[in-house]
């Protein structure tokens, strides 16, 4: 039995981490902490855990072997590093951290302490994405040449348990907007599907519509458009948005030498392959998660399997760092108006 603690009891913890831990027979939810102690107390009663008065107190509990870090973005690195040094394995929510130096320090600390570090990039675990990767590896569309991937919804307002204090719009806590909230998912996904790293980025990252409580445009981005070049020459676009006020978009289309693969681009089939010879293949694997339709993410089960069977997680800190480099490059490109090269293969 793995004893876990959860630091941060907001929406992502309540929708994903806590219920998925509770469903896993190899886990005991031992402790929880939140800045709002009343919230932590309520969660502790719900899951039969102890509510701690600080994250430091939780980390000092020797019974707890692993923690989920579900705090605001600006606290990810500090809490993760403290947890690793306290001898805990760490599953940290995305985005990994708010600076490249913090991301590197997280990876180095995990290696130095001999502990596992995993980041919650759940899109690669969606069943249709896993099936798509198998089909791509089997040559279903030949050599991939280009792609376009989109992730757009009406915003993160429902992803905070306190609607009066939406930390997503508070730059001091979130630091990033849609680019790191949604873009990190698709950045990681495209590297996963193509089995290639991003080496070059051009981007426009901007704020178009979202306003704060005073009626002013928020200080983080609500839209981003990126052109990515991969290490073997594949090029493609990624569009992410918090201002999609219609049906949520969460699709990826890959264009290869032998056909086109459409993933989560059709209401009836989760994968459609259009062959160069005119034939079509249809796969109904699952439906993608949306804000209104939440399904099991797969992140917790993968994480617990790593802990039980003592192996490095697929979505390790080092793997996540690669995607974060592309995100930071996109932000730099937008700021400077220049194409930015991504230094992969090094910390």
Automatic annotation (TrEMBL):
Pfam family, one: GFO_IDH_MocA_C3
GO MF term (any one): nucleotide binding
Coiled-coil ranges from the UniProt annotation: none
InterPro entries found in the cross-reference section: Gfo/Idh/MocA-like_OxRdtase_N, Gfo/Idh/MocA_Oxidoreductases, GFO_IDH_MocA-like_dom, NAD(P)-bd_dom_sf
Domain of life: Bacteria
Domain GFO/IDH/MocA-like oxidoreductase: 130-261
Residue span(s) of domain Gfo/Idh/MocA-like oxidoreductase N-terminal: 2-121
Name of the featured protein: Gfo/Idh/MocA family oxidoreductase
Source organism per UniProt: Candidatus Scatomonas pullistercoris
